[in-house]
Amino acid sequence: MQQEKNTSEIHIQDQKIIENKELSIWEALFPVLALVAMLAYNVFVFGDDALSGSNQFILLLGGAVAAFVGFRNKVSFDSMMEEVAENIKSTSGAILILLMVGALAGTWLISGVIPAMIYYGLQVLNPTIFLAACLIICAIISIATGSSWTTSATVGIALIGIGDALGISMGMTAGAVLSGAYFGDKMSPMSDTTNLAPAMAGTDLFTHIKYMTYTTVPTFAISLLFFIVLGFTLDISGEVDSNALLIDIEKAFHISPWLFLVPIIVIGLIVKKTSPLIALLAGTILAAIFALIFQPEVVAQIANVKELDFSSSYKGVMKAITVETSVATENEALADLFTAGGMSKMMGTIWLILCAMVFGGIMDAIGALARISSFMLSLFDSVFGLFASTVFTCIGLNFTASDQYLAIVVPGKMYAKAYQDKGLAPENLSRTLEDSGTVTSVLIPWNTCGAYHSGVLGVSVFDFGVYAIFNWLSPFMTLIFAAFKIKIRQLVVK
């Protein structure tokens, strides 16, 4: 990157932090305030349709405001564009995963994998225990895989379908799914964020995980209690005829327990530390083969032919992978469940991520992210103030940088010495980074995590945000522990 005279770079791990000592705090905050104002008005005008394109343009306008601030502080256009390019490059893996998730969802539909999950799920899970079961199932899968993204793309999609069939709000189901998924993501030694946080703070992985249990387990317990109580308050009696749904699923698909081999193999590959892209590709191809074996009539319907041959089989499978497909059913309650968007469905989410990376990249290039972090650090002198500053900085960076990794790396780098000076063990910082940086990323629509999960589950952030109780309760829990000095570990003087 072309180095400006008034900026400096800090390299740590694979991340880069740009500092600009000439940038005032008000200049750093101005693009953020402008973005908030423009997004608020845009959502007021467009409502739930804001994510269809207008919010994406607003993010670009926010980037333009940040660029104007950069020009005033002698940051060149080329420098800003180079940082934008770096940010977009860093999301290439996420974009490819999104495309593969779309392909996976399409083949899992026509193969009968998702209908089978819904079929058996309807028989095992009733509305009263469903949400609590979602939380526990997703927590287990996420601990095993180390990835909230994989959990959402596999069992998450199926649970959304089961919940919808049971007459439960998709926002409630998605909230339970993501609460469980992010619990596992935090606590799994295979999670990338769980490894990144202690690396930034200067502690080891298993000390970090053990120390996180103090705040994470109570938060999970409260979340479980919430969904148990919510389950008992659901009033959907008489609204859903499960027997009719089961019969109609059997009419449309050949249901067999053998279909569960596909998700089992995918999850097994992830647990064995196979690249998510390879695992998702394997799951897509395997499901396509299963579709031809178990559901030839469905593939023929998608290909618009009466009998399958090699050409029509190829056409049916490729349509399921790439574009929106629907399996015919007379049951209106199953119509949405029997529809998948393929890779094309993910393009809106990818569009949002790219625009968010433009704003985040320019904010980073002009030194605004580092300036906001250092300002927050200077606001407080007490131990509680230090924890509070860390929490607000992580949430703020999830909002401005649109990336959970930057929300861990930047505060981790900026605050490490401050925690040391206060005599606090580094695991205090690593825990706070996870409690506020990792879990809140999914609550912001234009953050890579928020955009991903919204796109995969087909539920807007505004719908699931209020029910993702584990995610928004975690920062409060870490602040409560700090306020009452509960399990605040001090540095050991040797």
> How far do the termini sit from each other?
42 Å
Mean pLDDT: 89
Please identify the structural class as seen in this structure. mainly alpha
- Report Rg: 23 Å
User: Could you estimate the helical fraction of the residues in percent?
Assistant: over 70%
**Main sheet: strands, sense, barrel:** 2 strands, antiparallel
**Count of individual beta strands:** 4
Backbone shape: globular
Order of the strands making up the biggest sheet: 1-2
Order of helices and strands: EEHHHHHHHHHHHHHHHEHEHHHHHHHH
Low-confidence stretches: none
Strand content: under 5%
Keywords:
494 residues, mainly alpha, two-stranded antiparallel sheet, 24 helices, 3% strand, globular
Secondary structure elements and pairings:
Blueprint: E1 7-12, E2 15-20, H1 25-46, H2 54-72, H3 77-90, H4 92-110, H5 113-124, H6 127-145, H7 148-165, H8 170-187, H9 192-201, H10 205-233, H11 242-252, H12 261-271, H13 276-294, H14 296-303, H15 310-322, E3 325-326, H16 332-335, E4 339-340, H17 347-365, H18 368-379, H19 383-400, H20 404-421, H21 426-438, H22 448-457, H23 461-464, H24 469-483
Antiparallel strand pairs: 1-2, 3-4
Structure report:
The protein has 494 residues and is mainly α. 72% of the residues lie in helices and 3% in strands. It has two domains: 7-92 and 347-483, no CATH class; 96-344, no CATH class. The strands form two sheets. A two-stranded antiparallel ribbon has the order 1-2. The chain has a two-stranded antiparallel sheet with strand order 3-4. Strand 1 (7-12) and strand 2 form a beta hairpin.
